[in-house]
Predict the structure.
Amino acid sequence: MLRESRAILIHQLSKKVTQRIPFKLHGLPVSSTFHPTRSVFFVSTKKNVRVYDLLKQKLVKKLETGFREVSSIAIHPGGDNVIVGSRDGKMAWFDMDLSSQPYRVLKCHPKDITSVAFHRSYPLFASCSDDCTAYVFHGMVYSDLNQNPLIVPLEILRGHTSANGRGVMDCKFHPRQPWLFTAGADSVIRLFCH
Protein backbone atom coordinates (compact mmCIF):
# COMPACT_ATOMS: atom_id res chain seq x y z
CA MET A 1 0.00 0.00 0.00
CA LEU A 2 1.39 3.39 -1.02
CA ARG A 3 0.93 6.46 1.13
CA GLU A 4 1.11 9.95 -0.31
CA SER A 5 3.96 11.98 1.18
CA ARG A 6 3.14 15.24 2.92
CA ALA A 7 6.72 16.07 3.86
CA ILE A 8 8.18 19.41 2.83
CA LEU A 9 11.94 19.44 2.22
CA ILE A 10 14.12 22.52 1.81
CA HIS A 11 17.49 22.11 0.12
CA GLN A 12 20.26 24.58 0.96
CA LEU A 13 22.61 24.32 -1.99
CA SER A 14 25.45 26.39 -0.51
CA LYS A 15 25.81 23.99 2.45
CA LYS A 16 24.62 20.88 0.57
CA VAL A 17 22.05 20.25 3.30
CA THR A 18 18.45 19.07 3.13
CA GLN A 19 16.11 19.68 6.01
CA ARG A 20 12.57 18.55 6.67
CA ILE A 21 10.18 21.34 7.62
CA PRO A 22 8.94 20.66 11.16
CA PHE A 23 5.41 21.89 10.44
CA LYS A 24 2.35 19.72 10.27
CA LEU A 25 0.72 20.25 6.89
CA HIS A 26 -3.04 19.75 6.70
CA GLY A 27 -3.70 18.39 3.22
CA LEU A 28 -1.53 17.57 0.23
CA PRO A 29 0.86 20.32 -0.92
CA VAL A 30 -0.01 21.75 -4.34
CA SER A 31 2.66 24.43 -4.77
CA SER A 32 5.15 26.38 -2.70
CA THR A 33 7.34 29.47 -2.94
CA PHE A 34 9.62 31.64 -0.82
CA HIS A 35 9.11 35.25 0.24
CA PRO A 36 11.36 37.50 -1.91
CA THR A 37 13.20 39.13 1.01
CA ARG A 38 12.34 37.42 4.33
CA SER A 39 12.72 33.86 5.62
CA VAL A 40 9.05 33.12 5.02
CA PHE A 41 7.77 30.08 3.17
CA PHE A 42 4.35 29.78 1.45
CA VAL A 43 2.77 26.35 0.96
CA SER A 44 -0.58 25.91 -0.74
CA THR A 45 -2.79 22.91 -0.19
CA LYS A 46 -6.03 22.28 -2.08
CA LYS A 47 -8.06 24.61 0.14
CA ASN A 48 -5.74 27.24 1.62
CA VAL A 49 -2.26 28.77 1.75
CA ARG A 50 -0.14 28.47 4.89
CA VAL A 51 2.60 31.01 5.59
CA TYR A 52 5.50 29.81 7.77
CA ASP A 53 8.37 31.73 9.34
CA LEU A 54 11.42 29.51 8.87
CA LEU A 55 13.59 31.22 11.52
CA LYS A 56 10.97 31.16 14.28
CA GLN A 57 9.63 27.84 12.97
CA LYS A 58 6.00 28.78 13.40
CA LEU A 59 2.87 29.36 11.38
CA VAL A 60 2.48 33.07 10.63
CA LYS A 61 -0.82 33.14 8.74
CA LYS A 62 -3.34 30.92 7.03
CA LEU A 63 -4.92 32.40 3.90
CA GLU A 64 -8.49 31.14 3.34
CA THR A 65 -9.20 30.97 -0.40
CA GLY A 66 -12.71 29.55 -0.46
CA PHE A 67 -11.79 27.76 -3.70
CA ARG A 68 -12.65 24.20 -4.64
CA GLU A 69 -8.97 23.52 -5.36
CA VAL A 70 -5.90 25.78 -5.42
CA SER A 71 -3.59 25.29 -8.42
CA SER A 72 -0.81 27.89 -8.11
CA ILE A 73 0.51 30.83 -6.10
CA ALA A 74 2.79 33.82 -6.76
CA ILE A 75 4.25 36.42 -4.40
CA HIS A 76 4.52 40.11 -5.28
CA PRO A 77 8.16 41.35 -5.31
CA GLY A 78 7.29 43.61 -2.36
CA GLY A 79 6.29 40.53 -0.40
CA ASP A 80 2.99 41.73 1.08
CA ASN A 81 0.64 40.62 -1.69
CA VAL A 82 -0.13 37.12 -2.96
CA ILE A 83 -2.16 35.85 -5.91
CA VAL A 84 -3.66 32.38 -5.87
CA GLY A 85 -5.00 30.56 -8.94
CA SER A 86 -7.64 27.85 -8.72
CA ARG A 87 -8.99 24.87 -10.62
CA ASP A 88 -12.37 26.61 -11.02
CA GLY A 89 -11.00 29.51 -13.11
CA LYS A 90 -10.85 32.05 -10.26
CA MET A 91 -7.91 34.03 -9.00
CA ALA A 92 -7.67 35.62 -5.54
CA TRP A 93 -5.52 38.61 -4.56
CA PHE A 94 -4.49 38.64 -0.90
CA ASP A 95 -3.11 41.69 0.88
CA MET A 96 -1.15 40.14 3.76
CA ASP A 97 -1.42 43.34 5.83
CA LEU A 98 -5.22 43.46 5.62
CA SER A 99 -6.72 40.04 6.20
CA SER A 100 -6.49 36.30 5.73
CA GLN A 101 -9.50 36.59 3.37
CA PRO A 102 -9.03 37.63 -0.29
CA TYR A 103 -8.91 41.35 -1.03
CA ARG A 104 -10.40 40.62 -4.45
CA VAL A 105 -11.52 37.49 -6.33
CA LEU A 106 -11.34 37.63 -10.13
CA LYS A 107 -13.35 35.20 -12.26
CA CYS A 108 -11.47 35.41 -15.53
CA HIS A 109 -11.11 31.93 -17.03
CA PRO A 110 -13.85 29.41 -17.84
CA LYS A 111 -11.42 26.49 -17.22
CA ASP A 112 -8.67 25.64 -14.72
CA ILE A 113 -5.99 28.23 -14.01
CA THR A 114 -2.67 26.44 -14.39
CA SER A 115 -0.22 29.17 -13.35
CA VAL A 116 -0.02 32.73 -12.01
CA ALA A 117 2.96 35.10 -12.08
CA PHE A 118 4.08 38.58 -10.99
CA HIS A 119 6.58 40.72 -12.88
CA ARG A 120 9.69 41.60 -10.86
CA SER A 121 9.79 45.32 -11.65
CA TYR A 122 6.66 46.32 -13.60
CA PRO A 123 3.21 46.48 -11.95
CA LEU A 124 2.02 43.46 -13.95
CA PHE A 125 0.67 40.02 -13.13
CA ALA A 126 -0.70 37.24 -15.29
CA SER A 127 -2.67 34.02 -15.23
CA CYS A 128 -2.86 31.21 -17.77
CA SER A 129 -5.42 28.50 -18.19
CA ASP A 130 -6.54 25.33 -19.90
CA ASP A 131 -8.84 27.54 -22.02
CA CYS A 132 -5.71 28.32 -24.15
CA THR A 133 -5.52 31.97 -22.99
CA ALA A 134 -3.32 34.06 -20.73
CA TYR A 135 -4.67 37.17 -19.03
CA VAL A 136 -2.40 40.11 -18.19
CA PHE A 137 -3.38 42.57 -15.46
CA HIS A 138 -2.04 45.86 -14.15
CA GLY A 139 -1.56 45.39 -10.40
CA MET A 140 -0.28 48.53 -8.70
CA VAL A 141 0.75 48.17 -5.06
CA TYR A 142 1.19 51.49 -3.26
CA SER A 143 3.71 52.22 -0.52
CA ASP A 144 0.94 54.02 1.41
CA LEU A 145 -0.64 51.27 3.54
CA ASN A 146 -3.98 53.12 3.60
CA GLN A 147 -4.35 52.80 -0.18
CA ASN A 148 -5.62 49.50 -1.58
CA PRO A 149 -3.92 47.84 -4.58
CA LEU A 150 -5.20 48.87 -8.01
CA ILE A 151 -6.13 45.90 -10.23
CA VAL A 152 -7.01 46.53 -13.90
CA PRO A 153 -7.37 43.87 -16.64
CA LEU A 154 -5.16 44.74 -19.63
CA GLU A 155 -5.01 42.02 -22.26
CA ILE A 156 -6.21 38.54 -23.20
CA LEU A 157 -3.46 36.67 -25.04
CA ARG A 158 -4.31 33.84 -27.42
CA GLY A 159 -2.09 31.71 -29.62
CA HIS A 160 -2.05 28.20 -28.20
CA THR A 161 -4.21 25.26 -29.25
CA SER A 162 -5.70 22.62 -26.98
CA ALA A 163 -3.97 19.25 -26.70
CA ASN A 164 -5.65 16.43 -24.76
CA GLY A 165 -7.92 18.95 -23.05
CA ARG A 166 -4.97 21.03 -21.79
CA GLY A 167 -4.17 24.58 -22.83
CA VAL A 168 -1.49 26.95 -21.54
CA MET A 169 0.53 25.12 -18.88
CA ASP A 170 2.75 27.89 -17.51
CA CYS A 171 3.51 31.60 -17.81
CA LYS A 172 6.57 33.60 -16.73
CA PHE A 173 7.55 37.24 -17.14
CA HIS A 174 10.89 38.35 -18.56
CA PRO A 175 13.07 39.64 -15.66
CA ARG A 176 13.55 43.15 -17.13
CA GLN A 177 11.17 43.63 -20.06
CA PRO A 178 7.33 43.70 -19.93
CA TRP A 179 7.22 40.45 -21.91
CA LEU A 180 5.31 37.28 -21.07
CA PHE A 181 6.41 33.77 -21.99
CA THR A 182 3.74 31.06 -22.17
CA ALA A 183 4.23 27.31 -22.52
CA GLY A 184 1.36 25.30 -23.96
CA ALA A 185 0.32 21.67 -24.05
CA ASP A 186 0.63 22.01 -27.85
CA SER A 187 4.46 21.87 -27.34
CA VAL A 188 4.86 25.57 -28.20
CA ILE A 189 6.48 28.33 -26.16
CA ARG A 190 5.28 31.80 -27.12
CA LEU A 191 6.70 35.24 -26.29
CA PHE A 192 4.17 38.08 -26.08
CA CYS A 193 5.57 41.60 -26.13
CA HIS A 194 3.80 44.90 -26.63
Q: What stands out?
A: The first strand starts at residue 9 and ends at 12. The chain has a mean pLDDT of 88.
